[in-house]
Specification:
It is a single chain. The termini are far apart. It is elongated and about 110 Å long. 7% of the residues lie in helices and 51% in strands. The protein contains 2 helices and 19 strands. The strands form 5 sheets. Strands 5, 13, 14, 15, 16, 17, 18 and 19 form an 8-stranded mixed beta sheet that branches. A 4-stranded mixed beta sheet has the order 8-3-7-11. By secondary structure, it is mostly beta strands.
């Protein structure tokens, strides 16, 4: 009797008959165990995201332009449902590259250890890619904007513009402009009895990952209007 929900079983007599039908020159006289039980699991299938494990060591002046990606980014996996239900991502085997100065494209096997060996995969090998660019430093003068300014006062900032020093990929360095940035000082965040306001970069281009301000605070003078 077979039961796909609770499992199935063959009695010793049933097993003996089946074995005798399959064995041509050998006859089974007796099966010593009472019952052989078989568990029939349920298979599952789902799309799983691939996470590359890539370590990059760059040559001086070079860096990752954007995120590391796998191609394909997701694959179908199939196998026992109790394993499939626990999987959220699949990782690649580690890849370590040194003295990198150009775009990366390399193959990496998926890391299939333990229960993951029981899975059927759309593919067990993916391409790991990363865009690499030479970066340079650029300095830009940006006007400082004051927020929460008391309306009854005229506020003068010294200096009224500050230098933003940023690292920019060579492909973007010609497109960056002062109005891509916004530097603010908040009157409500001033320290008591201090003549200075702290600066904060509130807007920057998405391709600028690293930046510093030439000064961290500005002096302010207030005159009643």
């Amino acid at each position: 009797v077979m039961d796909s929900t609770n499992g199935g079983f063959l009695t010793a007599t049933q097993l003996q008959k089946q074995l005798n039908r399959q064995l041509l020159r050998t006859q089974v006289k007796q099966v010593l165990i009472d019952t052989l039980r078989f568990n029939f699991g349920t298979n599952g299938r789902k799309m799983v995201r691939i996470v590359p494990k890539l370590t990059l060591r760059f040559e001086q002046g070079f860096a990752l332009y954007d995120s590391v990606r796998a191609v394909p980014a997701k694959i179908w996996v199939e196998g026992p449902k109790e394993i499939i239900d626990t999987i959220t991502v699949l990782h690649t085997q580690p890849v370590d590259l040194k003295l990198v100065r150009e775009d990366v494209e390399t193959n990496a096997a998926l890391n299939l250890t333990g229960p993951l060996n029981n899975l059927t995969l759309q593919t067990s090998l993916v391409s790991v890619r990363a865009d690499v660019e030479r970066f340079s430093e650029k300095k830009i003068l940006v006007p400082v904007q004051m927020v929460n300014n008391p309306p009854q006062y005229k506020v003068t900032l010294l200096p009224f513009e500050v230098e933003v020093v940023c690292k920019v990929a060579m492909r973007d360095i010609g497109t960056i402009k002062p109005d891509d940035f916004e530097v603010i000082c908040d009157y409500n965040s001033r320290l008591e009895n201090s003549p200075y306001l702290l600066l904060k970069v509130s807007k920057k281009p998405p391709f600028v990952k690293h930046y510093t301000l030439g000064v961290e605070k500005v002096e302010f003078l207030m005159q009643q209007q």
